[in-house]
Design a protein that fits this description.
Elements: E1 3-7, H1 12-23, E2 27-32, H2 40-45, E3 49-52, E4 63-66, H3 75-82, E5 86-89, H4 90-98, E6 102-107, H5 112-123, E7 129-132, E8 138-139, E9 146-150, E10 165-168, H6 182-193, E11 199-203, H7 209-213, E12 219-224, E13 230-238, E14 241-248, E15 251-258, H8 263-278, H9 283-291, E16 301-305, E17 308-313, H10 318-331, E18 337-341, H11 346-351, H12 353-360, E19 365-368, H13 384-388, E20 395-396, E21 412-416, H14 422-432
Parallel strand pairs: 1-2, 1-4, 2-3, 4-5, 6-9, 6-10, 7-9, 10-11, 11-12, 12-13, 17-21, 18-19, 18-21, 19-20
Antiparallel strand pairs: 7-8, 13-14, 14-15, 16-17
Helix pairs in contact: 5-8, 5-9, 10-12
């Protein structure tokens, strides 16, 4: 048993890893800002100590895992280095940790968290699987031989990993504060793919996946009504979710039911089925696991109050918003769909301004709150009004005037964003209650 201190324990990946290490028997604590963050709930539930940042937290006898958001001049990191303590960056530690397992990394510009959560849940229906999800959830099983994890492309962190398998959900231009353009993103994914030991499972209709397929030895592609290796056919939307047939390499494999709506969630399921097929897992148990899947945090998380459906969703890129709205339309075809969107970072808002406007315009009504900055960039040259001006009928909204949403009495109100949009949702829910 070792003693670990996490510097920045409330970060989603850090929180998840802390839980994994705690579950398999290590002593774990950590430090972070004092503001409440949704990732700290599971830590507190397990009794993992969370301290305010302080140099006094640094003592002899601990291994320090440092979050990637903090530079070497952070007081705790600096003190630990000065004392000669072992300080390991999150992605470096994770790379070493996963070498003890059959590892499956889930990467892609969008859909990583949803797919990782689904993969972890479904695999655990048959084999013990330790997992680390980007919504701050982690679970360690001492006897497991499988490890599934969310593998992030930002700053090329995923190049630290050499997994047995990798799922690539899609390749898109995001993180304009780091990547130069789409070719820079594709180059990063090519290098990541070259480090996968066994097989890549990738979305076949992605415009850039062909470039990667030409450079790797083993890849299975998946798609809907396509000529890919793993294909969903005869898709039917039901009251309880979606039903579809799956064929693998041209032959009927099985019929699956999932308690979810939307083509992107069918695609995520195909990626998961691909891993289970390659590892020859018990398909009867896998099908049962799909049926009781409840989703991950902040991915179309629903609350029903009076006759309203209130949804919390992490969508913060135009394609993610599109997928979320598709789910809402398919699940609630007869209801009004209302978007309450918080743009995340000035650079992303500026880069995709027209794309945000186009997709939000497909809502029946769009409300936009102030842009959420980040530790990397606290200000920019535009505001949320620039986005509102491009969306017909859209309105600016603040915490003080959330009661305007009351007029959508039978609607589906979707609070979307990667910042602190939850405070708006929480306040509105309190007003309704």
């Amino acid at each position: 048993m070792k003693k670990y201190h996490f510097i920045g324990i409330k970060g989603a990946g850090m929180s998840a890893l802390a839980q994994v290490l705690f579950d398999i028997g290590h002593e774990v604590q950590g430090s972070d800002i004092e503001n409440e963050v949704f990732t700290e709930g599971p830590l507190r539930k397990k009794g993992i100590k969370i301290l305010p940042f302080s140099e006094d937290n640094i003592v002899e006898g601990m291994t320090y895992i440092a979050g990637n958001a903090f530079k070497d001049d952070h007081p705790e990191i600096k003190k630990a280095n000065e004392m000669g303590c072992e300080v390991i960056r999150y992605h470096v530690f994770l790379a070493d940790f996963m070498s003890n397992y059959i590892s499956i990394g889930v990467t892609g510009s969008h859909g990583k968290t949803s797919t990782t959560g689904l993969l972890a849940h479904v695999m655990n229906g048959d084999v013990e699987t330790t997992y680390l999800i980007g919504d701050g959830t982690g679970f360690g099983l001492p006897e497991s031989k499988y490890f599934t994890f969310e593998s992030c492309e930002y700053k090329r962190h995923f190049l630290s990993y050499y997994p047995d398998y990798a799922i690539i959900t899609n390749i898109d231009f995001d993180h304009p504060d780091y990547f130069n353009d789409i070719s820079d993103v594709v180059d990063a994914f090519k290098e990541m793919a070259s480090q996968v030991k066994k097989c890549i499972i990738a979305y076949g209709n992605d415009p850039y996946i062909g470039e990667i397929k030409n450079e790797v030895q083993d890849m299975l592609t998946y798609g809907i009504e396509s000529d890919d290796d793993i294909v969903a056919k005869n898709i039917k939307v039901t009251e309880d979710g979606t039903v579809f047939d799956v064929s693998i390499k041209g032959e009927h494999f099985d019929t699956f039911r999932i308690p979810m709506y939307g083509d992107h969630l069918v695609l995520n399921s195909l990626a998961v089925i691909g891993v289970c097929y390659l590892e020859k897992l018990d398909i009867t148990l896998i099908k049962e696991s799909f049926l009781n899947y409840k989703g991950v945090k902040r991915r179309f998380s629903e609350t029903k109050l009076h006759n309203m459906v209130i949804v919390d969703d992490y969508a913060h890129h135009p394609k993610e918003i599109d997928a979320t709205l598709e789910t809402a339309r398919k699940k609630y075809p007869d209801r009004e769909i209302i978007s309450v969107f918080q743009p995340h970072t000035f650079s992303r808002t500026e880069k995709f301004l027209q794309e945000f406007a186009d997709v939000l315009a497909t809502s029946d009504k769009a409300y936009i709150v102030d842009i959420f900055g980040s530790a990397r960039e606290e200000s920019g040259t535009l505001s949320s009004k620039d986005l509102v001006d491009l969306i017909p009928g859209a309105e600016l909204m603040t915490e003080a005037d959330l009661e305007r949403l009351d007029k959508h009495a039978d609607g589906v109100i979707i609070f979307m964003g990667a910042g602190d949009i939850q405070k708006y949702e929480k306040r509105f829910t309190e007003l309704l209650s």
